[in-house]
């Protein structure tokens, strides 16, 4: 009995000890499972740097800014119709006069709003034209790099100056149609060519790993859907301007079918290389299809230059008193001074991507988002104005209460995210480009020159640390550089 009791006790003690050990192990295992679950949940909802994360960021931003852009374009169209109806009651004659956004603000809200709107709108259109001129030089370089990008800017500045002969948006019918065809071809070429090319060796998809990168990209999208700075001028050229709001929404949806597939495909193929290349065409090998895309984009950018510049031409004509002049040659001669500062700025700041972001955050945010939303709220703040409005907000959106809530959201979001964080990120990036490449850089983001020969005649494995301007080369050479060297379509890169 005693021995059995002893063994039971021992067994009990061992069992008790074992039970405690198992209990601690189970607790540790549960902690590890809980930690793993939290890690998986964190990875699912918080930490993400894959290609899918980047696509989600781009798509959500594009949808958000596309919707906000369509909304503020609607607001501008409503304010234009309201202004024109009021002026026509006063027997105003617009047969030889193009109504512009700053005049709408002046008629509805007074001269202070006019001055603010005029300053933002003209500055935005000025730099919008600069961006198109830079893009022309950047694109043509990938077909013919015997001339550096700065020289191409001189040439295309002279070519774009011919837009002074296009009287108004009434005369852009064929150009608008061709521009749309060209953009469609280039967007789908980028998508298909990237998928056929496949992923480059060691491709990485870090996504926006820093706040600067995230908000810089977001402000580029803000700029993409902020093209309605010329809304009033386009509406004035329409026979039935009331249809513009539906047309703009359809146009935005069509643009999404171009931007999303091309952006996703190019990023899938090249990943983080896009962080140091402001022109995706530079990453694809030279083919007849790529050259066609470059040529078509050149023509499109020429047309877009005219679209951005024409409102500036109108402002200048009104300033010098020639807006109602019937002589096309006199008006064209008077418009030429507008092209000069655009040309000059494109030579000083040839940073296509960074200037895109800066314009989006600092100018587009106010010109086509904040000012229209505030102007709509203030114009219809009184009950009398709302009762007599030509176009009340749709019932689907909650009428006036819903419109005020949407306007307040647009103002707050764009002011904080677009102008605040976006302005900080874009200016940080812009200053960094100036520090790296300098002003008046001869060939921004061009491939580095070939290796220097040793005095004995052999080629060394040390490349030049600086380009011909005494400036550091671009951080990531384009794969097109190596393609050009193997295919020898010209002997070497000059003018770098």
From TrEMBL:
The keyword Nucleus does not apply. Keywords: Amino-acid transport, Membrane, Transmembrane, Transmembrane helix, Transport. Signal peptide: none annotated. Residues 60-415 form the Amino acid transporter transmembrane domain. The chain crosses the membrane at residues 63-81, 118-140, 152-170, 177-200, 212-234, 246-270, 292-316, 336-353, 359-380, 401-424. It comes from the Eukaryota. It is found in: Membrane. GO terms for cellular component: membrane. One of its GO terms (biological process) is amino acid transport. The keyword Metal-binding does not apply. Its main location: membrane. PANTHER family: OS05G0424000 PROTEIN-RELATED. This is Amino acid transporter transmembrane domain-containing protein. The lineage of its organism: Eukaryota, Viridiplantae, Streptophyta, Embryophyta, Tracheophyta. The gene is LOC100284071.
